[in-house]
User: What shape does this take?
Amino acid sequence: MSAPANDLLLRALLREPTTRTPLWMMRQAGRYLPEYRATRAKAGSFLALCMNPELACEVTLQPLERYRLDAAILFSDILTIPHAMNVGLEFEAGEGPKIARPVRTAADIDRLPMPDPEGELRYVMDAVRLIRRELAGRVPLIGFAGSPWTIATYMVEGGGSKSFQHVKRMLYGSPRELHRLLDVLARATIAYLNAQSAAGAQALMVFDTWGGVLTPAGYREFSLQYMQQIVDGLVREREGRRVPVILFTKGGGAWLPDMAATGCDALGVDWTTDLADARRAVGDRVALQGNLDPSVLYAPPAEIRVQVARVLASYGEGTGHVFNLGHGIHPDVPPEHALAMVEAVHELSPRYHGG
Assistant: This one.
């Protein structure tokens, strides 16, 4: 398969020169789009949508029909690996994920199977293959997974949490068992991401949604160590070019230098860290992705443009910036407000690239 006609994203992630700042949105295929809601209704449930390669492909491509985006991101969920480990994952409307059989003991960990990416998770690989074919080289495809720590929090808690009481009890009371679980998840994630890139994903992202709830020492021991293991285990070249790896820890602004030291290619930055500060912290070791506050998209288009300009100016001149939100787009954002952001990046970013 040949390189995409628009390879701005891949170039920016490798800090190569671009004519403007590329952009995509976390959760760009999602509930803010009426066409997504229609496809999800057709699928019957969120999980059924994830597990249907044709429909997953359909929703992956929907935002590209509306907006001048520079990447597609695989439509899937970070909990596909635990789902394949038979923990009883379900998504309840308005409630988020629920896990029927939480993993809290040594025996629970012993029972976890190692999923086969082309077996239990073949539906994900089939979706990647189909999306690559349907994209026909328009833009690159991003594959992704959750970080071991983030996936472990859901598996131990039995769903989402505000206090993280069960996983933190394990962290402080049975750290050896938690490390065992994290190692299993890291190995499963390496196989899963390598299979995604073999199937056609051209960049890979690791979402560490809950790393920010840890202490600095806890973050390094229980989150970053396992993302390092993943970075070390990934095949970094396919189809004759590098497969960039992006790490994103929500709430992890203080740890950007440690994250940059893993050997990843780029770091996602949430909206609580100024990009100028992030750039100073990491030097020229990695590209940076972000970081418009998703709530800016509730504002009128004129204000959205002002805030886009502020993010671009914060990063400043030169290569190595991928414009994105600081986290996923909110479900109740008007689609035309997302359009205002996209158009502002197209119009305002060339000046930072000598254009």
Notes: The chain has one domain: 8-353. Residues 8-353 form a domain with the TIM Barrel fold (CATH 3.20.20.210). The mean pLDDT is 97. Residues 20 and 346 are 7 Å apart (CA to CA).
